[in-house]
Structure formats: structure tokens, C-alpha cells
Amino acid sequence: MARRRPPAGRSLPQLASDFGGQLPSARPSGDSGRERHREEAALLRPPAPARGHARPGHGWSPVAAPLVVYRASTAEVGGIFPLLTANGLPPTGALIGYDALTAGGFYVDPVGWVLNQIVTNPNLIFFGKPGQGKSTTVKALLLRMMLFGARVLVAGDVKGEYEPLCHAVGVEPISLGLGLPVRINPLDLGPLGQSWDQLPAAERQARAALIFARWVVLLKALIGVRGITASPSDESALAMVVAELSGWSRGGGQLRAVTIPEVYDALARPTAQLAEQCRYPSVQRMVDATRQSTDALGTLVRGALAGLFDAPTTVRLDWNAPIQSLSLRRLNDLGDEVVGVALACVNSWSRAMTDLRRPGEITIVVRDEVWRQMRLGVGAVQSLDADLRLSRNDGEIQVIVAHKPSDLLAVGAAGSQEVAIAKDMMALCDTKVMFAQDPTIAEELAQLVGLTDIARDWVAGWARQRTGRAVWMVGDRVFKVTTVRTPLEVPLFDTNAALKAETGP
Fold first, then answer.
1. CA-based angle 304:223:300, to the nearest 5?
2. Rounded to whole angstroms, how far apart are CA atoms 442 and 49?
3. Does residue 135 sit within a domain?
């Protein structure tokens, strides 16, 4: 029986023709091919002398540049060349890393962005899960901004992670803790009290108003720690007390710093004159009406923080140093509430210490572990909100470090005043940096910040694939940025050093 031969296959031209394509025909040989080549060359490039045209601006080229024509669809061209433009930010300020979309360097210049009207304020807020490079990026920003003359104040280093950076630039952090000699008076005058006797009366009046406003806001925040909301009458009594204790209410334009124990004693044992000024019918009625607020302030006098914030300040910030840090690491074992109160006191004092800078000076104030302070109540929220609102006028760059949106929104019940203020704070930070988050948290960020679906997927996907990746939202512009560390910076920025020391290599 004869073997049947398989059917002959289709040739390549036939296969292409069956699917609607056509292969280019071979170039004709001989004179006709050369003639066609000359015709195509004449169409693509007009003839020119070997030494160029003898006209100004035409120059001379020994070899004519070849012109090659390619035909492809837009999808294929996109794969060959992305045709991406630059990110639109000026290359000024600190070089943090590179933009994953353009492969170009990504520079951070908050003040320059304000001057170029890219953003309306220089504040930055960082969101990210622990271990995703959030702290590394913050410290990289601080160190590299120091090269441009910026002065850094870390207003409460709860975990001591900024101490290696301080030591690297020759600065010893200021440590607060039980048994240590350092004392901070959150009701300090600060630079506003310098040369007070030589100031005109109008300037004294303006500065006194700022000082009293800061003091009352802090005292309300400390009262709110115990879940007590200071009433308008309590707020009026606090204002009267600080004015009386400072000597301002007696006239003459004199003003001195007061301490929290003095405020506590004045409320616990008010004079008849003070009760009358606060419009209470008797001293006892004033004591009864302000009892809860008075007892709340007493926790700073007799509680876990006794001896830290109840005496005149014993340290002075050196603004000639590139960085100053107030370390609260030794208070971490006392609980979140104690640390939150310490942060509120340190932030108020830091605010006083950064007043009256010269024009052009750049000061970066870092507020880490902000969720601890936000849980103290509406007073603490209002204090932080005031600092963010004044940053543009004062020339400060406020850096807020948080884990997730609930750090800000957990300050009160839904629809409360605290939550409304916390949401408005997002608008006071025009630059938002979002590191890797779980999909549910990324969705919360998208709703709170206004991320597009693509940017939300970057936060929940792309950023989780490598440490140091983050989505930067500068005004209404979005960037995919990867932070880059130099070999010298790796040991300074490593927040897992303690874990490595305990577990070994």
C-alpha cells in the first residue's frame, strides 16, 4: 500500500495574505532597481553638494545623515519610545531620588514651589506603613535640605530615630525624661520676649496677644487630655489668669513667663479680684465652676510628667546648628497618653522658639508620631492647625508624619468639630507623600486626598514592591518617586538597626 504524502504547507506570503497582510516585494535588480532607489532618495532628501550649500547657516557635513523610515501602529511606537515629558517641577532643592515615570531626578523644594505658585503652602504630610521607607525619606529630606542652609527642629523624637542623624552632624539631642536635668516650660515667652523693654507700646500689644493665644490653646489642649472640654467660661478664666500672673493686666507693659503650676494654683485658690474679673459672684463659685479644668491641669503637676514641664526652661536652642532634636524616647514606656501630653507641651514650646526669624531663613519643624497628639482632643487639634496655618507667613516648613488617614480622623466622632478641623488640615499640607498601604487604606487616602484610580493603585501595588517607593502629590501633580540612599546615609537612616542587633545577621 502506497504511503500518502502530507499536504503541502502554505508559504509565508500566502500565510500573511490569508490574515490580511502583505509582505514587501523584493527590490528589483538591475537598472530599474537603481532608478527606483534614486527616485525614493530624491523624495526623502533633496540633493545637495558634498560640502553643503554655499549659503549662510547651512554649514558643511562630510557625510550626509541617513534617513530611515519606519511604519508602525501607535501601540508599537509606544513600546519603542514612551514619548514621556518631564515632570514639570524645577530642578531645585534637595535631590531625593528619581521619578519612575521619566527616570529623571526628583527634587524637593517646598519654599521654591510656593514662590513658583506650584503649591500654596510649604507643608508636607507623610503617610505610610512602618517599614516602607517613610522615616528614611523624611531624614533624607532633612539632611539634604541642611546643605541649603535650612535649620531643622524635631519637635519630639518619640523613638529616638533622629539621634544618629544629629550625631552625624555634630549635634547632641536634647533628652527629656524622668530624672534628667532638662526642663521645658511650654508657657515660655520665646524670642517674642527679647528686648521687651525697648519695644514700642504697639509692638508689645501685638506680641502679647500672640503669646496669650498660644498659652490658652495649649492649656485647653492639656485640659482636654482627661476628656474634659473647656467651656467658654473656662477659657475666659484661663486668659484672665495668665494675664494676671504675667503682670500684663497690671499695666505698664511688663510681661514675664509663667508656669503651669502657677496657673493651677491661681485656679485652685483664686483671689476675690480674679473671681470678680471673671464675673463669678464669689470665689467659691469660681472654684466650683472651674474644678474639672483645674484638676485636669493638676496631672502635669503631680502626675507622671511632674518635674518636666512645670519649671522654667533650662535649655536654649542653638540656631547656628543645622538640627535640634527634643528626644522623648525615655518617656515611651509611660504610655501613649503621657507621650501625647509631652508632645503637646514640646510643640507649644517649639512654636515659641521659632518666632521672629529673619526673612529668608528656612526652618523645618518635624512633627513625628502625630497620632499621639491628635488623640488629646480638640485643643491639641487646634494647636497643630494653628501652626500649619501660620507656616506660610512665618517661613516654616511643617513636616507631619503619620501612618494612615485614621491617625487624623480618630480625634472625635464622625461629623464632630475635631474631625472637621482634621480634614481641613489636609488642605494646609499641599504636598502629600503616600507610601505603601493596604488596598483598604489606599482607598481611604484616595477619598481624603483626591487620588485618581491609577494613583490609588500605585499606592496599593507599585509602592509595595520595593521599600522607598511613594506617590508624591505636589499640589495637583502626581509623581511616582523612589528614594535613593547613598552608602554613607544607609546607617544614619536605618530604623531597623535595633532589630538587626537583637536578631543578628
1. 25
2. 64
3. yes
The SS3 assignment for 171 reads coil
The reported pTM is 0.75
Q: Which residue, 467, 447, 465, is CA-closest to 456?
A: 447
- Calpha distance 256→318 (Å, rounded): 22
| C-alpha of 44 from chain center | 55
b/e burial code for range 271-287 (CB count within 10 A of at least 16 → b): eeebbebbebeebeebb
C-alpha cell at 218: 495649649
Angle at 75 between CA 71 and CA 77, to 5 degrees: 50
The Cα-based distances of 368 to 159, 340, 347 in angstroms read: 9, 11, 11
Q: Is residue 164 part of a domain?
A: yes
Query: Helices marked H in 102-245 — which ranges?
Result: 110-115, 134-146, 163-168, 201-224, 232-245
Return d(Cα 291, Cα 281) in angstroms, integer: 16
Give the chain's residues under pLDDT 70.
Answer: 1-10, 12, 15-16, 19-53, 56-68, 74-87, 355-360, 373-380, 383, 387, 389-395, 407-418, 422, 495-505
| Closest to 134 in 3D by CA, of 463, 411, 497, 427 | 463
Domain-located, residue 35: no
Q: What is the tens place of the pLDDT at every residue in 383-428? A: 677 767 665 556 688 898 888 877 666 665 666 666 777 677 777 8
Residue 233 burial (CB count, 10 A):
15
Q: Please state, in angstroms and rounded to a whole number, the distance separating the CA atoms of residues 113 and 260.
A: 40
Q: Does residue 27 lie within any of the structural domains? A: no
Indicate the number of domains in the chain. Answer: 1
Three-state secondary structure readout of 263-297: HHHHHHCCCHHHHHHCCCCCHHHHHHHCHHHHHHH
Tell me which residue range forms the domain holding 328: 96-182+315-503
CATH code (residue 496): 3.40.50.300
pLDDT tens column, 96-138: 999 988 888 999 999 999 999 999 889 999 998 888 899 999 9
